[in-house]
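For practice. Supply one:
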Amino acid sequence: MAWLYLTIAGIFEVVWATFMKMSNGFHKLNFTILTIIGMIISFVCLAEATRRLPMSLAYPIWTGIGAVGSIIVGVIFFGDHISPITWVFVGCLLIGIIGIKFTSH
């Protein structure tokens, strides 16, 4: 169950980062509110995950999911341009996240 909480926390990290972008510097109230709600869900789920998982495992996976997810959202929804070599390093991040998960006890 801790891994489910951690996955949800990572997904909502992407959600709140996306809504923060859409809030235009917190000038659009609806997206600002959604940002705060996303942050709360993300942090609550991360806190729940760290009750059962070591922080040294949970935190890097949470930030990794957020980083990779935010890059993908940026490219798909905001037209961000990522160079091919950057995609290689995004792949390295993804491999690292998966590696941490599968090598933890």
Remarks:
- The radius of gyration is 15 Å.
- Helices lie at 2-22, 29-52, 55-78, 84-103.
- The mean pLDDT is 96.
- The chain is about 85% helix and 0% strand.
